[in-house]
Amino acid sequence: MKFSQFSRRSVCAIALSLTACTMPANGGSEVAGCTPGAAAGQSAAGIEQVTLCISSAKTTRAFNVEVAETSAQQAKGLMFRTELADNAGMIFPFPEPRIASFWMKNTVIPLDIIFIRANGTIESIADNTIPYSTIPVEAGEPVVAVLELRGGLAAELGIAAGDTVKWAAK
Predict the structure, then answer these.
(1) Which residue in 22, 45, 62, 63 has the most C-beta neighbors within 10 A?
(2) For range 132-145, the mean pLDDT
């Protein structure tokens, strides 16, 4: 069969199958069709992106997240962004567990702020945080990372405290 005989849908299905079979980066392991830590290129802001997986009892969801590793990246976060795709977000990894405190100063869109324990489980979710607010949003206990997703997305997808988050940190 010549390439021209493939439908666009067939080519896309083949490409997706090949993408799902890539080896994980940084020692990640596949979780129900999601490969945590797989390199996902750079964002428009020039920040490294990786695949992050959130697993609940019923499903595993994949996200391409920017990794805010430097203090400058963490300080800016998602400030000034006017949109955030449903499969996108930003992860803020910390070198050791701490009580994380975030605010929404200069953040145009509402976000779900997800606090992640050292064992990878979600400690809590501050949902639909208020744009431009300087009121701190804090974890209830020490966490090793914070994930930001589009406001309201966690509830829409059924993501909740106790679910597991995996990504390959450097």
Answers:
(1) 63
(2) 97
pTM (predicted TM-score):
0.81
Q: Across-strand partners of 17? A: none
- Which residues touch 64 (CB under 8 Å, ≥6 apart)? 40, 49, 50, 51, 52, 87, 88
Look at residues 146, 109, 105, 103 and name the one whose alpha carbon lies nearest to residue 124: 146
Q: How confident is the model at residue 31 (pLDDT cuts 50, 70, 90)?
A: confident
Whether the CB-CB separation of 69 and 76 falls below 8 Å is answered with no
How many domains does one find in the chain? 1
Q: What is the CATH number of the domain that holds 137?
A: 2.60.120.1140
In tens, the pLDDT along 120-135 reads: 999 999 999 999 999 9
